[in-house]
């Protein structure tokens, strides 16, 4: 189940589709095979029954022809004289009659080729074919055939005797004998005719006529004895089976028979020419369904082909059905990569498209909220920076006014006038009519006024120099009040333990492709310029203020670099990018 949970939605839909199709195909295949096997078995049983009927009809016809041929022979005058049915018969002329009967015997065999030999038994002597090798002095009355005839209680004897060794002729083949009375009247009794048929020839006739190619057939007497002796060895105990014993009492039917681990379908039919004989066809059921083996593989192959085609169709349909969801997934991935401009678009009008439309509206709302938050954050930062500037200005103003006061007390009116004018010009340039952007020239003038005022406040504390590269465009726009906080930081912190000898250098050069590099260097005490730990701001309130303003105005392209050697010098460099969509100009 864990593997199922790890599958993608496409895989789960594909698997569900395949499972449903597989169940349907499997059920259809099993049902088709079951129906086909049932129909095939019924057809095979019907074919077996039809084959048995044709076989019994052929056998009946052949036995009937043998009987008819014998009865026709009995109408011949030579035959009638030989057996004493004519007034002119002379029993003393035995050899004359025997010779006359040879042509009758030959004619009989021509009429019915299956008759192998013929014997006519009378109380006055035997008549047989001279062409056959007879067993000497073998009387019909001394054979088991005669014993069977005596057990019959019928007006006219007609007896079919199953496979046995011929007692009259020296022939090793198994024979079937037809025994009947030699005359059809009560006056001439104890005259018999025996017609012998080879079992092998009768089998050939049946096989040739029917074309039997599967299963076996058995011919049993009413007592359960095999007519063909060899049949008894094929299925030992067959005649003793209860179903067989019951079948021998009926005219026709079918039943199942088991032997040696095999189940057989048995059909049977009583012969009309030999009422005591019942013909059985014994067909293994595995043979009945032999053709179903090929059908099974055909159905299995068809099922596999259907599964393969269904898998391909399921893959295509799954891809087609999930195409809107795939598109929505791609849109969500781009949103995860902070691309809020992307939108979901689909020609479908399904539930996924409705979700996509709502997702688009959500993105619009997120963009609107982002703009509002960004504007609010920008306004907040501007307010914070203005508050920072408001905190710096009173400190500087306090020192300046205090200096002006003491200079006026000392009657240094010229210095007082110069400081007042410088302070006025400083405020004018710093306010810049309320605009954040000024020109580079005004920024230089602003820091110059500040340095002049500070030199008046801290006499002989420091000196300064401003170096501007000739390639620098002095009228280019720049964020106001960038240099003054850094200069103030040098005076208040770098020179706090000095009384004289301080020096501040301001350098302005072109950086990169049209950018600016503003550098403030002093020879003050310096500080540890190692990078601050996470969550801490760089040392100095002024540095923090300038860094914030640069990031807000110029983004990540702006830089603030600090290099300091304690007791030697401190260098602070601001990098302002060249390409900027200036909102204000000085």
From TrEMBL:
Coiled-coil stretches: 359-393
Q: Which GO terms describe its molecular function?
A: phosphorelay sensor kinase activity
Q: Which residues cross the membrane?
A: 297-317
Report whether NADP shows up as a keyword of the record: no
Annotated PROSITE patterns: HAMP
Which SMART domains does the UniProt record give? HAMP
Spell out the GO cellular component terms annotated for this protein, sorted alphabetically and separated by semicolons.
Answer: plasma membrane
Q: Which keywords describe this protein according to UniProt?
A: Cell membrane, Coiled coil, Kinase, Membrane, Phosphoprotein, Transferase, Transmembrane, Transmembrane helix
Q: Where is the HAMP domain?
A: 319-371
Membrane topology, as annotated = Multi-pass membrane protein
Query: What SUPFAM superfamilies does the record point to?
Result: ATPase domain of HSP90 chaperone/DNA topoisomerase II/histidine kinase, HAMP domain-like
Compartment(s) where it occurs, according to its Swiss-Prot or TrEMBL record: Cell membrane
Q: Which PANTHER family does the annotation name?
A: SENSOR HISTIDINE KINASE YPDA (PTHR34220)
Q: Name the chain's protein.
A: Two-component system sensor histidine kinase YesM
What's the source species for this entry?
A: Paenibacillus methanolicus
């Amino acid at each position: 189940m864990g593997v199922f949970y790890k599958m993608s939605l496409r895989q789960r839909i594909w698997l569900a589709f395949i499972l449903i199709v597989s169940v349907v195909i499997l059920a259809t295949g099993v049902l088709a095979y079951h129906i086909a096997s049932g129909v095939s078995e019924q057809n095979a049983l019907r074919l077996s029954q039809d084959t048995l009927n044709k076989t019994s009809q052929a056998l009946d016809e052949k036995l009937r022809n043998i009987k008819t041929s014998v009865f026709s022979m009995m109408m011949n005058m030579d035959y009638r004289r030989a057996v004493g049915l004519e007034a002119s018969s002379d029993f003393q002329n035995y050899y004359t009659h025997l010779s006359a009967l040879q042509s009758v015997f030959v004619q009989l065999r021509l009429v019915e080729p299956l008759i192998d030999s013929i014997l006519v038994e009378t109380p006055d002597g035997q008549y047989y074919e001279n062409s056959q090798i007879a067993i000497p002095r073998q009387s019909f009355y001394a054979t088991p055939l005669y014993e069977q005839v005596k057990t019959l209680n019928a007006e006219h004897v007609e007896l079919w005797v199953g496979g046995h060794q011929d007692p009259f002729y020296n022939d090793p083949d198994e024979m079937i004998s037809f025994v009947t009375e030699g005359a059809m009247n009560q006056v001439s009794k104890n005259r018999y005719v025996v017609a012998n048929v080879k079992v092998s020839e009768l089998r050939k006739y049946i096989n040739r006529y029917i074309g039997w190619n599967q299963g076996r057939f058995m011919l049993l007497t009413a007592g359960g004895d095999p007519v063909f002796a060899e049949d008894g060895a094929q299925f030992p105990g067959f005649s003793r089976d209860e179903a067989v014993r019951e079948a021998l009492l009926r005219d026709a039917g079918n039943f199942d028979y088991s032997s040696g681990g095999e189940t057989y379908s048995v059909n049977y039919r009583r012969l009309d020419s030999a009422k005591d004989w019942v013909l059985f066809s014994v067909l293994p059921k595995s043979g009945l369904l032999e053709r179903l083996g090929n059908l099974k593989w055909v159905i299995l192959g068809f099922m596999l082909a259907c599964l393969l085609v269904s898998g391909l169709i399921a893959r295509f349909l799954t891809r087609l059905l999930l195409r809107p969801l795939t598109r929505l997934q791609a849109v969500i991935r781009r949103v995860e990569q902070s691309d809020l401009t992307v939108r979901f678009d689909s020609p479908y009008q399904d539930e996924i498209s409705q979700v996509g439309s709502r997702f688009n509206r959500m993105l619009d709302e997120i963009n609107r909220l982002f703009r509002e938050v960004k504007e609010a954050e920008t306004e907040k930062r501007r307010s914070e920076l203005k508050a920072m500037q408001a905190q710096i200005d009173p400190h500087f103003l306090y020192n300046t006014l205090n200096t002006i006061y003491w200079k006026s007390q000392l009657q240094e009116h010229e210095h007082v006038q110069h400081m007042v004018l410088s302070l006025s010009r400083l405020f004018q340039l710093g306010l810049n009519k309320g605009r954040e952007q000024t020109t580079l020239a005004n920024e230089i003038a602003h820091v110059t006024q500040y340095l002049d005022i500070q030199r008046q406040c801290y006499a002989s504390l420091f000196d300064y120099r401003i170096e501007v590269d000739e390639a620098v465009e002095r009228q280019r726009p720049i964020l106001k009040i960038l240099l003054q906080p850094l200069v103030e930081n040098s005076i208040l912190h770098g020179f706090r333990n000095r009384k004289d000898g301080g020096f501040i250098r301001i350098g302005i050069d072109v950086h990169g492709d049209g950018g600016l590099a503003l550098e403030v260097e002093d020879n003050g005490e310096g500080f540890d310029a190692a990078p601050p730990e996470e969550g801490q701001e760089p040392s100095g309130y002024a540095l923090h203020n300038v860094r914030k303003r640069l990031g807000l105005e110029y983004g990540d392209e702006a830089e603030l670099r600090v290099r300091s050697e304690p007791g030697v010098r401190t260098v602070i460099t601001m990098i302002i990018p060249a390409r900027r969509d200036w909102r204000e100009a000085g």
